[in-house]
Amino acid sequence: MVKVILMNAPVAQMSEHARLTLPLGLAYIGGALLDAGHRVTGIDFNVSGLDLDRVSRVVQRQKPSLVGISALTETYPNALAIAERVKLVDPSVTVVLGGAHPTILPEDVLEQAAVDYVVVGSGEASMVELAAYLERGEGSPMTIAGLGHRLEDGTVLVNQRRKLPHPDSLPRPARDLFPIQLYRGKFNVLTATGSCPYRCPFCSAAAIWEGRRSTRSPESIVEEIEALIRDYDADYIFFTDDVLTLEKKWVFRLLESLEGLSRPITWGCATRVDLVDEQLLLAMSSAGCRAIQFGVESGSQDILDSVKGVNKMQVLTAVAASVGAGIDTLCSFMAPFPEDTVETIRETGAFMRTLHDAGSKISLSYTAPFPGTTFFEHAEELGLTILANGWQDYDAKHVTFETRHLSAAEIEVELKGIEEMLGMTRTTVTSDQ
Questions:
Q1: Residue 27, SS3?
Q2: Residue 222 CB: number of other CB atoms within 10 A?
Q3: How confident is the model at residue 433 (pLDDT cuts 50, 70, 90)?
Q4: What is the rounded CA–CA span in Å between residue 196 and residue 243?
Q5: Alpha helices per DSSP H over 204-300
Q6: What is the CA 54 to chain-centroid distance, rounded?
Q7: In this predicted model, what pLDDT tens digit does every residue of 13-35 receive, in sequence order?
Q8: What is the distance between the alpha carbons of residues 42 and 54, in angstroms, rounded to a whole number?
Q9: Is 211 left (phi over 0), alpha (psi -120 to 50) or beta?
Q10: Would residue 234 be called left, alpha or beta, if left means φ above 0 and alpha means ψ between -120 and 50 degrees?
Q11: Alpha carbons 186 and 3: distance in angstroms, whole number
């Protein structure tokens, strides 16, 4: 048995949004380690706030052999701080970093002395195999798929990625590792591994999952929901996938399966406006859907053509159908994009107002050039000047780049004007990771 602590590194600035939901990825890894017979505990520092002295106390008291830390780009500096503190208390502890940022930049992460391994992509099997190696000497880090590490001469080696696991084969996420009652969105349910097949230039999902996706069976989903009803008296579920309605036939199968639940539930999801229609939305509403988020991004058709591939009429039609079906609708936007001007941002503001008047809620975040995105990889040729002073600035809460058309000051003025027009407060919604 290996003693494992799984830690979720927190955002740079604490917010309600950061603690909406428990870290489902870590819960899945925890479930896999528990099934393999290991002792596992979890800490979500987005709930408690980062306290490095607490890290010291936990390591001293629990004496783990393995600490796994999950990191997004914004949370990566805090993940390193946690890793360094673990090593300071007990250099013999094996420290592993996983999540979006280490998956995209594994070599950079492995340059840090406090990090022994990184996990690239799906981490359940990789962590179980690493624990077996640490406990019994089974296998080798050289042969664990998806694992990155340093050789004795300091050379960094990242093994070939693991084949994307089918979600039906994954263990039940160990939600009890985290303070489940403290989350507003307590019961997120994953319906597919991987991500959407779209390659939007502002989103790093394609870099994380390489466009791969495997859909879970409706029967498996219903089994998990039944367990949530039985164990936690759950009455609301949020399907956490980027695009729930990618495959309409599968969605109708899921809706039919939900009718067989022992007790009706309500639920929410996210998707694209070009992946729904009135018939589907009415069926979703009848099956308990009460909330939906559409990633709209911009109100300028020229910008939408370049970054999203949808048109404004599709947005208006989807919102009207969703609102008409009685579903609480949210349209999310971000700015700026490389070709945005003062005029296109104001056009976005006007479109946001139109959707608001049509019954939709609105969110607005600052576009961040996350690693793995086209905006990060091709910033210079796109005319972007990145202003971030460190990874902690990649938070979608403030201006992180200027464009060839807009200065940071102009971007700030225009977005504040939109917020004031709509009576919005500064949002903390991110769009990549």
A1: helix
A2: 17
A3: low
A4: 6
A5: 205-209, 218-232, 248-258, 278-286
A6: 26
A7: 777 766 778 999 999 999 999 99
A8: 13
A9: left
A10: beta
A11: 26
Q: Which two tokens stand for residue 116?
A: 């022994």
Predicted confidence band of residue 428 (pLDDT cuts 50, 70, 90): very low
Q: Do residues 215 and 332 share a domain?
A: yes
How far apart are the C-alpha atoms of 208 and 205, rounded to whole Å? 5
Last residue of a domain, one of 112, 142, 158: 158
Q: What is the distance of C-alpha 110 from the center of its chain?
A: 22
CB-count burial class (<10 Å; 0-12, 13-18, 19+) for 127: buried
| 246 backbone φψ class: left, alpha, beta (φ>0; ψ -120 to 50) | alpha
Rounded CA gap, 162 and 155, in Å? 21
- Contacts of residue 173, Cβ cutoff 8 Å, sequence gap at least 6: 24, 27, 28, 30, 31, 190
Same domain, residue pair 152 and 256? no
| 3-class secondary-structure state, position 409 | helix
**Number of domains forming the structure of the chain:** 2
Residues near 348 by beta carbon (within 8 Å), at least 6 away in sequence: 298, 299, 300, 303, 333, 335, 418
Q: Are residues 216 and 331 in the same domain?
A: yes
Which residue from 52, 100, 113 is spatially nearest to 74, judged by alpha carbons? 100
Q: 3-class SS at 268?
A: strand
Cis peptide before 336 (omega within 30 of 0): yes
What are the CA-CA distances from residue 366 to residues 152, 280, 312 (Å)?
Answer: 42, 31, 21
Record the pTM.
Answer: 0.94
Domain that holds residue 20: 3-158
DSSP at 167: G
